[in-house]
Design brief:
Blueprint (H helix, E strand, L loop, with lengths): L1 H8 L4 E2 H8 L3 H13 L3 E4 L2 E4 L11 E2 L2 H11 L3 H9 L4 E6 L6 E7 L5 E8 L4 E8 L2 H9 L1
Parallel strand pairs: 4-8
Antiparallel strand pairs: 1-3, 2-3, 5-6, 6-7, 7-8
């Protein structure tokens, strides 16, 4: 099943339900395999959408695009470094939910912790091979509640 999932995810982010429908298996079977892939650094879940991580990035450093303009903004306005963003996205306890699913690429709200324990709220756009960072800042209690309780 793993090879079939990888082929489907190469086309872009998808939910477990969509993948199960395409493979004609149960969503539980797909989720079990996707979770194994995530633990192994081969897949990434953001708000119910699963993406395949490129082979070169399977050391759990997700391929995150952070433009110079966004990096400047998050450093200056929110005192967040790109390194902290990578840590928070790779946090195995990270939670996320869609904030906008219209259009070709889902937009996600994610909350994860850095290695120092700082919780970050991040807005990212999911692309087939990478994540595009829109913003990152220190998480508020409201942000945490939103991703945990929707």
């Amino acid at each position: 099943m793993r090879r079939h999932l990888e082929r489907l995810l190469e086309k872009g982010p998808a939910t477990a339900e969509e993948l199960a429908h395409r493979l004609q298996v149960t969503p539980a079977e797909v989720l079990d395999e996707l979770r194994r892939m995530e633990v192994g650094g081969a897949a990434l879940e953001m708000g119910g959408y699963w993406s395949l991580l490129p082979v070169t990035k399977r050391d759990w450093t997700p391929n995150i695009i952070i433009t110079a303009e966004i990096e400047d903004k998050i450093r200056r306005k929110h005192s967040v470094s790109p390194h902290e963003v990578y840590q928070a996205i790779a946090d195995p306890k990270r939670r996320s939910r869609p904030v906008l699913s219209e259009g070709e690429h889902p937009v996600m709200l994610a909350v994860g912790s850095t290695s120092s324990g700082r919780k970050l709220t991040m807005i990212v756009i999911l692309f087939p091979d990478n994540l595009y960072l829109v913003s990152a800042r220190t998480a508020t209690a409201k942000d945490i509640a939103e991703v945990h309780y929707g």
